[in-house]
Design goal:
By secondary structure, this protein is mainly alpha-helical. It has one domain: Cobalamin adenosyltransferase-like (Hypothetical Protein Ta1238, Chain: A). The chain is built from five helices and two strands, in the order E-E-H-H-H-H-H. A two-stranded antiparallel sheet has the order 1-2. Helix 1 runs antiparallel to helix 4. It starts with 11 loop residues before the first strand and ends in a 16-residue tail after the last helix. GO terms for molecular function: ATP binding; corrinoid adenosyltransferase activity. InterPro entries: CblAdoTrfase-like, CblAdoTrfase-like_sf, PduO-typ. It is an enzyme of class 2 (transferase). It comes from Lysinibacillus telephonicus.
């Protein structure tokens, strides 16, 4: 099997159920999700499996769920069955709570960074927010998009924030507070 098909040489790409221009917002949204998945792969490569077994398991699950999100966004068939389920959001919420309880209490905004893995997770958080904005725009353009994808991405960015803080905490690297921040978390 060849990796190239030449079907995109005219600036169009295939969806499940149709073809669109490669700069279509739907393609931008699932392309951003693919970019996000790559940053997660980078974070995985930076995490020690003896210290971060739980987070590594989370990230592998998330990578599969992001493929589900991309597939759901690329599906424009009349009869659709979406892969992403509400249970994925519930699991994320539980993990966010566990990770938030492990990290030190937070009162102010923090600067993204710390260990290489935490910094990569912060990048994943911001790419997630961009993907979410693109999905919201797509939804507002009266495109038929499963709302669960937007909800999942919203929760996922919170997960990455919590995970980045725990990575720094377990590695004894303090988060740096934004010096002009007031107390915003209570």
């Amino acid at each position: 099997m060849k990796l190239y098909t030449k079907t995109g040489d005219t600036g169009k790409t295939s969806l499940m159920g149709g073809r669109v221009r490669k700069d279509h917002l739907r393609v931008e949204a699932y392309g951003t999700i693919d970019e996000l998945n790559s940053f997660i792969g980078k974070a995985v490569s930076e995490l020690d499996s003896t210290v971060f077994q739980d987070i590594l398991a989370d990230l592998e699950t998330i990578q599969h769920e992001l493929f589900d999100c991309g597939g759901d966004l690329a599906n424009v068939m009349k009869e659709r069955k979406y892969k992403l389920q509400e249970a994925s959001i519930e699991v994320l919420e539980k993990r966010i709570d566990v990770l938030s309880d492990e990290a030190p209490p937070l009162k102010r905004f923090i600067l993204p960074g710390g260990t290489p893995a935490a910094a990569t997770l912060h990048i994943a958080r911001t790419v997630t927010r961009r993907a979410e904005r693109q999905v919201v725009t797509l939804m507002n353009d009266i495109e038929d998009v499963p709302a669960i994808v937007q909800k999942y991405l919203n929760r996922l960015s919170d997960y990455f924030f919590a995970a980045a803080r725990v990575v720094n905490f377990r590695m004894n690297v303090k988060d740096i507070e934004y010096i002009r921040s007031g107390d915003v978390f209570k």
